[in-house]
Amino acid sequence: MRRRLTSVLIAVLTALPLVAAPVGTGRSDAAVYGALAAQWTRTHDGKQKYGGYSVKPDVPIRMSDGTVLRGNLIRPVGRDGKPVSTKLPTIVNMTPYTKMVSALASEVMNYPVLVPQLIDLLNGINLRGTVLSGYNELVGALRGGLIQTFAYDPQLIKSGYNMLVVDVRGTGFSQGTWQVFGDRERKDTVEVVDWAAKQRWSNGKIGMAGVSYSGINQLQAASDDPGKLGAIFPVVPGADLVRDIIAPGGGLGFGFLLPWLTLVNSSKMIPNIASMLNGTFDWKWLADRIKDPLTYFDVLIDALATRNVKDFAPKTRDMMTANSARRKSLFTDVNRVQTPTFAIGGWNDLFTNSESRLLSGLSQLPNAQKKLIMDDGYHITSSSNFGQKGHPPRIDVLARAWYDRWLKGIHNGIDRYSPATLASEPTGNFLQGDTYPLPGYTYQRQYLRGTPSRTVNTPVAGDGSLSSAKPTRRATREVKPGLSTLCDRDAAQAAAGVTILFDFCGKDTRLSEVAAQTFTGKPVSSLTRISGTPVVHLRQRLKATDGYWHATVNIVSPDGRSQIVSMGQLMVSLRGVDASKSTYAPNGDLTDPFLYLSLDHYSKVRPGQILDIDIPMSATQAALKPGDRLRVDLYSFNFPKSVPLGPGLWSSQLRPQYIEIDPANPSWVNVPLSKAIR
Q1: Structural domain of residue 358, as residue ranges?
Q2: Where do the record's region annotations for Disordered lie (predicted)?
Q3: Could you give the CA distance from residue 216 to residue 104 in angstroms, rounded to a whole number?
Q4: Is 159 found in the same domain as 69?
Q5: How many structural domains comprise the chain?
Q6: Please, which pLDDT band fits residue 390 given cuts at 50, 70 and 90?
Q7: Omega of the bond prior to 57 within 30 degrees of 0, cis?
Q8: Cis bond leading into 426, ω under 30°?
Q9: Residue 416 sits in the same domain as residue 454
């Protein structure tokens, strides 16, 4: 009994999720949730072809360099309790979080009677309106199918699929040293797929599944060996990891990287107890762990402690230099993907940068073979409330329908589901369309002005206004570093959503704005939507040779609540924009600046120099209701999500920074709007 309770606790703690708000109607024949979705749900939840399944643990899979990876092979069984002899499609999941954890999570989530009752009990506790208002959002994903996708789905297996869950090289019970998406690790994924396709229990049709890390390597495998995979279903995946989480805007993604590296490096040291008891312990596994017990902590420390870019260690320098072999291994060219791809992302996810670009990036796939759902959740809360009225179907339901269509050839209508299904912030209402950004939106400048908006009813560093008209007077606004960003949506994003238990920070950024220069527009008179990536063009001045800017675009409701819908940051020394990879409006304005983020474009400034910069922001789908206002917040620090690299930290000395409002050279936020605003 104690083991079962421990397993339940592990599953709950590793999967806490966010409840989305009520949603609007869709326009496709599948709709957000319609007749076809109900059919897919019945197919998934009903009686399956096979009555059970068996797990063969720690199957050895030898790589081309001799390293042995270990995988759990899960197969459906017949009435005799033995694995069926029929060759079946196989779903591969490559995980760094140890397959032991995924096995526990899967078994617990499918424990009859107890777990459904527990989930209902947890979701029945209503803490909305209290200091723990985020509780209900956290537990919501327990019923959204995320856990089954993170681990394995017994219903899927019993319907006629094999499942192979493999520990990534250097993690779990696999040999080798952890590479964190290095070239050898990427080759491993391709080799495991090839191995699975050739086994006697496989019919050669291979799909992939998994969340986060296990979503990233799906995109990598589909890009590295185009056409080999039959279907992939990545949940919260990334494709450009440096821009996503390692160094967004040139700052080190400290808030996520430190706890994440600690988690994986700790879990990889857990030995295979069963092998110790039966005399088959893998001594090479132990030697490999001793060789590299703290993978990439040396890079993290070097990135923070080094005072001069010339003194970075080679590993750190490679990470921060464009076109280096290491940098290339952290990027996935999704234009090469030829595999039907259904992705789940989120506007508050760690990988929003990559997810929002997937539909346009998957250029070789027709709309029938590429789908993207962007909800308003965080990394561990994706799919919260999926399966509920007005929301998309559960993730496990969608995955089953996707695999059935492309691995079994069942024409179930999933290919007609809208290519883009988008939660509209801050309400969570879903919109659908063929592309993201949605068509019909035009970028419009909203200028920063020194004139007070007189709409701020809580302490801020400064109150300015936003307008479609240029400023008429010069003004200077001072921005001092502070720690108020501990309580905002960016901090919750960096924590993968764990901290949204205290949801007053994620849902209202007024506490954070105490350190911000705020610029607020006039209320809109009619519904106005945003679809795409805002850009903050800022005329600024530093007292030092480097500086760090953090910007947010917010929607302010009539009651004064300020909710972030887009966020970004920029290290001034890494401000260089690659024009060939950036996009521009017809008037020449940047609409999606692509930073080099490379040490060979590192450039300090002269103290006192006035300089224009462009801050890349995260993509969004949002709506201003009548009476809502648009706001831009500007900070000079963004702890804990991101901090300046060591050289930038020493150069900036955390001195105040200045916004220069100049009628001749104005600052603005460029926003993709459905209609013009004043």
Answers
A1: 2-239+332-433
A2: 452-474
A3: 22
A4: yes
A5: 2
A6: confident
A7: no
A8: yes
A9: no
Give me the residue label for tokens 């009435």: 79
Residues making up the chain, counted from first to last: 678
Q: CB of 533 within 8 A of CB of 589?
A: no
With CA atoms as reference, report the closest residue to 156 among 35, 40, 251: 40
Q: How confident is the model at residue 309 (pLDDT cuts 50, 70, 90)?
A: very high
392: phi then psi, degrees, rounded to nearest 5: -60, 165
571 and 635 assigned to the same domain: yes
Strand partners, 424: 429
Q: Is the dihedral of CA 257, 260, 266, 270 positive or negative?
A: negative
For residues 22 and 118, state if they share a domain: yes
**Per-residue pLDDT at 402 exceeds 90:** yes
Distance CA 121, CA 106 (A): 19
Tokens of residue 651, six digits: 């150069």
Tokens coding 229: 């995979």
Q: What letter would DSSP give residue 250?
A: G
- The predicted structure's pLDDT at residue 130: 66
3 state DSSP class of 403? helix
CA atoms within 13 A on the CB side of 534: 30
pTM recorded for the entire structure: 0.92
Q: Which of 585, 474, 485 has the alpha carbon at shortest distance from 535?
A: 585
Q: Which of 408, 433, 458 is the last residue of a domain?
A: 433
168 in any annotated domain: yes
Q: Where is pLDDT greater, at 492 or 128?
A: 492
Residue of 332, 97, 165 whose CA lies nearest to 237: 332
Picking from 97-111, 604-618, 634-648, 657-671, which range would have the lowest pLDDT averaged per residue?
97-111
Q: List Cα–Cα distances, 678 to 323, 470, 502, 522, in angstroms.
A: 43, 11, 35, 7
Is the domain of 92 the same as that of 230?
A: yes
Is residue 278 one of the residues assigned to a domain?
Answer: no
Question: What burial letters (b/e) apply to 432-459, b meaning 16+ CB within 10 Å?
Answer: bbeebbbeebebbbbbbbbbebebbeee
Tell how far CA 521 is from the center of its chain: 30
**Do residues 602 and 573 touch, judged by C-beta distance below 8 A?**
yes
CATH of the domain at 452: 2.60.120.260
| Neighbouring C-alpha atoms within 13 Å toward the C-beta of 573 | 26
Q: Which amino acid is at 651?
A: S
The answer as to whether 336 is a domain residue is: yes
Beta bridge partners of 532: 620
Assess whether 212 and 73 both reside in one domain: yes
Among 372, 398, 433, identify where a domain stops.
433
Asked if 463 and 603 sit in the same domain, the reply is: yes
Preceding amide of 340 cis, omega within 30? no
Model confidence band, residue 162 (pLDDT cutoffs 50, 70, 90): very high
Closest C-alpha to 499, from 128, 138, 31:
138
Q: How confident is the model at residue 636 (pLDDT cuts 50, 70, 90)?
A: very high
Distance (Å, rounded) from C-alpha 585 to C-alpha 324? 31
pLDDT tier for residue 381 given thresholds of 50, 70 and 90? confident
What is the distance of C-alpha 658 from the center of its chain? 32
| Segment 4-38, tens digit of pLDDT | 333 333 333 333 332 233 333 334 334 788 889 99
Residue 559: how many other CB atoms lie within 10 Å:
8
Q: How far apart are the first and last CA of the chain?
A: 63
Q: What is the pLDDT of residue 482?
A: 93
119 — pLDDT class (breaks 50, 70, 90): low
Residue 478 sits in the same domain as residue 379:
no
CATH number of the domain bearing residue 220:
3.40.50.1820
In a domain, 577, yes or no: yes
Q: Kindly tell me if the per-residue pLDDT of 491 is higher than 60.
A: yes
Tell me, what's the pLDDT at 126? Answer: 63
Phi then psi for residue 654, to 5 deg, are 55, 35
As a three-state string, the secondary structure of 379-391 is: HHHCCCCCCCCCC
